[in-house]
Amino acid sequence: GAVVSQHPSRVICKSGTSVKIECRSLDFQATTMFWYRQFPKQSLMLMATSNEGSKATYEQGVEKDKFLINHASLTLSTLTVTSAHPEDSSFYICSAKGSLGANVLTFGAGSRLTVL
Amino acid sequence: GENVEQHPSTLSVQEGDSAVIKCTYSDSASNYFPWYKQELGKGPQLIIDIRSNVGEKKDQRIAVTLNKTAKHFSLHITETQPEDSAVYFCAASITGNQFYFGTGTSLTVIP
Description:
The complex is a heterodimer.
Chain A: E1 4-7, E2 10-13, E3 19-25, E4 30-38, E5 44-51, E6 57-58, E7 67-73, E8 76-81, E9 90-98, E10 105-107, E11 111-115
Parallel strand pairs in A: 2-11
Antiparallel strand pairs in A: 1-3, 3-8, 4-5, 4-9, 5-6, 7-8, 9-10, 9-11
Chain B: E1 4-7, E2 10-14, E3 19-25, E4 32-38, E5 45-51, E6 56-59, E7 62-67, E8 72-77, E9 86-93, E10 99-101, E11 105-110
Parallel strand pairs in B: 2-11
Antiparallel strand pairs in B: 1-3, 3-8, 4-5, 4-9, 6-7, 7-8, 9-10, 9-11
């Protein structure tokens, strides 16, 4: 079945630094990738939708200059949290949708970001 | 836009009993309804899904029902086991380009 790999699974960084999270579709071409943020015991909050080769579409209230999303290929999307602050600490999850089984969404395992 | 509500937020059942989680949606154009299971510290995993042209779908101990008229769909887990303990999310999608998630149900199966 479809597999999405997300890396790193955990990252701790100092305030003010930038952190990059990668999301890869391993066995299918992901035409669309989604990035979510999840707070403890809460639902998934969609941050942005990215389509390969085009700019990401950000949800209202999400700072595009802070959360940089790049979808350079059909198998890789990256989320960069720039100038991270403690309030950016969260669980970030990506998901990918391919052209086959068009509506089926496959999630990565998530990345736990802790900003000190 | 679409609004998905999910109930209950927490659910405890005895091992072997059944568990039912219900979701409602607002946009009649939604046509795809997946259910995800999320274990602690992991990403959600698709466990079953249903499309709007089907009223019920079953996969071993898991089943999903859809009532398009009432705009609600439910997840049914029979013969629950401790390993079923997790957070379950429902979702609704219109075109497959936008997914709207419920608020999650934390299921605890008591041995």
